[in-house]
Amino acid sequence: MIAIVDDDQSVRDGMVDLMTAMGFDVEAFGHAEHFLRSSRLDRTSFLITDMRMPGINGLELHDRLVKSGKRIPTVVITAYPTEPERTRALHAGVICYLAKPVDENTLVDCIKSSLGARTDRRQP
């Protein structure tokens, strides 16, 4: 299941449509707090989150998940990319840091790369 966390309804809708078209089970959340309280959290295998949201931002969400032992591959998207923020996100273990509007092909490559790497690690 792919979780999408973004306070912008149009971004959430677009991401849900794209992920659904790719055949993924998708759940969208308007705030990080909603995702963290969700019964779907334990079923989440991939996370796409906005960087700047009210309350918990995307990188804080990723950090909280890691600290709680949930290592969910995460893509952070942002309308206001900065190099220091990108460096911080990638250093924290985020797999991709993408500027809005997100290029669909780049996002798909991030997902495929992550899922492929996870599959490769399971093989002897």
What does this structure look like?
The radius of gyration is 13 Å and the shape is globular. Residues 118-124 have low confidence and may be disordered. The protein has a single domain (2-122), classed as Rossmann fold (3-Layer(aba) Sandwich), CATH 3.40.50.2300. 45% of the residues lie in helices and 18% in strands. With 124 residues, the protein is an alpha/beta fold.
Brief digest:
This protein has 124 residues and is α/β, with parallel strands linked by helices.
CATH-defined topology: Rossmann fold
Count of DSSP H/I helices: 5
Q: How far do the termini sit from each other?
A: 25 Å
User: What share of residues are in beta strands?
Assistant: 15-25%
Q: Which strand order does the major sheet show?
A: 2-1-3-4-5
As a percent range, the share of helical residues equals: 40-55%
The low-pLDDT segments are 118-124
Task: Write the CATH architecture name.
Answer: 3-Layer(aba) Sandwich
